Amino acid sequence: MKILRLILKNTARNPRRTVLTVLSIGVSIFLVSTLQAVLRSLDNLGMSNSSNLRVVVHRATSMTETMPIAYKQRIAALPGVKYVECMDWFGGYYADPSNFFANFATEVEDFEKIADELAIPPDQLTAWKRERVAALVGNKLMETYHWKLGDRVTLKGTVYPVDLEFIIRAVYTDAEDVANERAMYFHWDYFDESLGRPGRTGSFYVKAATPEDVPRLAERIDGMFRNTDAETKTETEKAFNLSFVSMLGNIKLLLNVVCLAVAFTILLVAGNTMAMSIRERTGEVAVLKTLGFRQNAILYLLVGESVAIAVLGGMLGALGAKTTYGFIHITSTKGKAFPMLYALGVALLAAYGTWVLFAGASVSRTWMKATRIVATLVGGLAGLVAGFGFYVGTGYVMNQGGFLADFGVNYATVALGLGISAAVGLVSALLPSLRASRMSIAEALRYVG
User: Fold this and answer.
1) Mutual orientation of helices 15-43 and 337-357 as an angle, nearest 10°?
2) Which of 84, 138, 155, 252 stands the most exposed, by the fewest C-beta atoms within 10 Å?
3) 3-state class (DSSP) for residue 266
4) By residue range, what is the domain housing residue 362?
5) CA 233 to CA 55: how far, in whole Å?
6) How confident is the model over 409-430, as a mean pLDDT?
C-alpha cells in the first residue's frame, strides 16, 4: 500500500508533463481503437447466418454490365435452387447528392423468403407487394430522414437516367445487423418499366436449399452460361460484398500497418518522457535507499508510475472511443442538440487540459494569469469546434450505410488498447528504472541528469 500511494502521488508531481503524456497516449489509443473498429466492420461484412445460403450471379466481365432477365428461369430450374430473384442497384439519392444510401430494385414475390433475416410486419409486407410504387425502407433509414409510413419519396437517378417516386408502405428491421437497416427496396417491374422495358438485370440473388448446394450451384450456373454473350460469375454473398472492399486494395493490411506505426510512435514518445523523468529523479533514489527502500521497491515505484500514467492514457483513449462512437450511434438521428452537447464536453476537456498545462509557480504573476486564462479560452474554443466537426462527420459516415455504418468499439478492442498502453508504460520505463535502482547511494547523489 505504501508503494501504491507513492506511485499515485508521483503521477501528479509534474501536472504539465503528466497531462501531455496522458493526452498523447490517449489520442494514439483512440486512433488505434478506431482503426480496429473499422477492421472489425470489414470482417463482419456479409456474415449474417442467412447470407450463407445466398449466392449472387453477375456478369463475369463487370458488375456494371447487365444480363438477360431470361436467365432467371434457367437458374430456377437447377437442382438445389430454392428461390431466385433479380436485383439491381439503382444508385439514386434523396433531395441532395449528399443524401446517398443503398437502394435496390428487386422482385417482391419471394423477397421475404430470400432475405429472411429481415423482420417485416405482415400487413406492411402485403401493402408493399400490392402497390407498384411502394417502397420497403430500413428502420435506421427512416430515423435518419424522419420519414413515416405513407410519405412520398423521390430518388434522383445517377446510374440510370430516371427519377423515381415512391410511397413508403413498409419498414423492416434486422436484429443481426443494424447497419443493414439503411437501405430501400422497391419493385423491379416499376424500375424496368421506367427504363423502357429493356428486360435486363444487373444481378440475380439465389437462395440455396442447403449449405452443401452453394458451391455446386456456383459451378453449375457459371457452366450453364459459359461461352454466351453474357457469361456469369457466381459467388457467395459475403464474397460479393467483400469484392467492393477489395476495390480499395489491401485496406486491412494498410490499417494494421498504421496501428503498428501508431503503437511504435507511442513507445518512442512515452520512452523519452519516462526516461527524462527517471533521470531527473535519480538523486531521489539515494534518499529512498537511505530511508531503507530496497532495490526492488524502488524499481516497482519507478515502473509503476510509468505504467499508471500510460494506462490512464489508454483508458482515456479506449473508453473514450467506445463512449464516443456509442453516443454518436445512439443520438446522431435524434436531434440537433446532441452535436453541441458532445462538442461542449470536448471543449470542457480541452479547456481543463490547457488550464493544467499552465500550472506552476509563475502563475502567481498577473501577466501569466492572464495568459493562462486566454490560453484556456482558446483551448476550449478549439475543442468546441473540433468536437462539433468530429460528431457531424462521424454521424454522417454512420448514416450513409455501407460497411462503416454503425461501427463501434467493442470491449475486446478496449482491452487491446489498455494492453498496448500498459506494455508501452512497462517497456519505456523498465531499462532506465533498472539502471537507476541499481545505483549505489553515493553514485546516485553524484549523478547529474
Assistant:
1) 140
2) 252
3) helix
4) 2-44+249-446
5) 10
6) 88
Residue 237 lies in a domain: no
Question: pLDDT (tens digit, 9 = 90+) per residue, 109-130?
Answer: 999 999 998 999 999 999 999 9
Residue 275, C-alpha cell as written in the block = 526516461
Cβ-contact 140, 178 below 8 angstroms: yes
Copy the grid coordinates of residue 303. 515502473
Provide mean pLDDT across the span 382-402: 82
Length of the chain: 449
H or E stretch including 49?
none
> Read out DSSP for 185-218?
EEEHHHHHHHTT---EESEEEEEESSTTHHHHHH
Whole-Å CA distances, 170 to 104, 120, 123, 165, 421:
15, 7, 8, 15, 48
Residue 159 has pLDDT above 80, yes or no: yes
Whether residue 176 sits in one domain with residue 30: no
The grid coordinates listed for 354 are 490547457
| Percentage above 90 pLDDT, the chain | 39
* 377 falls within a domain: yes
Mean pLDDT over all residues of the chain? 84
Closest CA to 302 of 13, 6, 2, 1: 6
Question: For residue 413, is it within any domain?
Answer: yes
Single-letter residue type at 157: G
Residue 58: its H or E element? strand 54-59
Report the alpha-carbon distance of residue 445 to residue 111 in Å, rounded. 81
Q: How far apart (Å, rounded) are the C-alpha atoms in residues 134 and 165?
A: 9
Q: Which domain-ending residue is among 173, 196, 230? A: 230
Name the band, by pLDDT with cuts 50, 70 and 90, for residue 362.
Answer: low
Residue 51 belongs to some domain of the structure: no
